[in-house]
């Protein structure tokens, strides 16, 4: 199942809501590595991750890109109660991502 896509306004609402744990994948449409990262996260989600997973196009999130200091794509941002707890730029493997989401 594809990751739910959100825009900058929705991401700000998620961060402000302090809904516990959330993961957001920043991508661009023409990035091949981003597509691989997205597919890996879809597998993690199907394996039973209890983290809500979202994706967003970094081109349409200029404020968050600057506020959260996103340096490149793909970037997986892990949030806990609206605060960034981790940023992952290297999506090493499905197993790595699964464990990363479990421990966060």
Automatic annotation (TrEMBL):
UniProt-listed CDD domains: TRX_family
Any one Pfam family match given in the protein's UniProt record, by short name: Thioredoxin
Domain Thioredoxin: 17-101
InterPro entries from the UniProt entry: Thioredoxin-like_sf, Thioredoxin_domain
Identification of the protein by name: Thiol reductase thioredoxin
Native organism: Paenibacillus agaridevorans
Record lineage: Bacteria, Bacillati, Bacillota, Bacilli, Bacillales
